[in-house]
Amino acid sequence: MILLDGKKISDEILSEIANEVRILKHDQKKIPHLAAVLVGNDGASETYVASKVRNCEKVGFKSTLIRLEDTISENELLKVINSLNDNTDIDGFIVQLPLPKHINENKITQAIAPNKDVDGFHPTNVGLLALGNPVFISATPNGVMEILRRYNIDTEGKNCVILGRSNIVGSPMAILMSKNTNPGNATVTVCHSKTQNLKSYTTQADILIIAIGKPEFITSDMVKSGAVVIDVGIHRIPDSSKKSGFRLVGDVKFDEVAPKASYITPVPGGVGLMTICSLLQNTLKAAKMNS
Length: 291
Known about the structure:
Elements: E1 2-3, H1 6-26, E2 33-39, H2 43-59, E3 62-68, H3 74-86, E4 92-95, H4 105-111, H5 123-131, H6 139-150, E5 159-163, H7 170-178, E6 187-191, H8 198-202, E7 207-210, E8 228-231, E9 235-238, E10 246-249, H9 254-257, E11 263-264, H10 271-290
Parallel strand pairs: 1-11, 2-3, 2-4, 5-6, 5-7, 7-8, 8-11
Antiparallel strand pairs: 9-10
């Protein structure tokens, strides 16, 4: 079993981005500027946004964090988004999900200008991805593709099973894995909450990508021996033995599944770090487009 080390790969990518930023500075070109909008005080969102800000500093990007109360109205949030769309100094921005229940996430996502949508969630960017002409690829699926690419994992003709069909992970992941690319060219099956006999699909997977949102859902009896296992999930589980009072787990029961896998991503230290790298890659691309 080989551990797919998200930290190692993310460090490589961050170093590559930092080098490009140094060249931009040397040539006196615009330095990429990423903004993040954080509504409320969700613990996981706080952690994630803080990591984005830290990594912006690490590669030499400018970053702006906009904190808003969870009582903000949908119209007020839309005004913030419109101001960011019009701000020529900001190359890309994200609105951290989830949002409070009184705010329509689809309406917010669609309000972000496609050329600043570095999360890759806007329907225009999803449509371009489906057509094979992406501007910004959704950050998490792109992070998974980087892992497969940099570990030289053979995907051509392989049976790839994706658990989860969200617009953020599952659906774009299926598009990317089925494309005539490397990595890609896999035969893709998408499973979800209504799939019957789920185990009959997962045990046939050469590559199993899990984004189902259920802690330690995938157990060893659901995985084919020698499979590549990519765990996109991340959950806080109460743990009194930890100073923080919790531990992080994925959608996969790691200790059980790892011995059966040929490759597996850990949680933490796997896909999550790659998601942030992809976001920065998209921001760099946006800055080049806007310069």
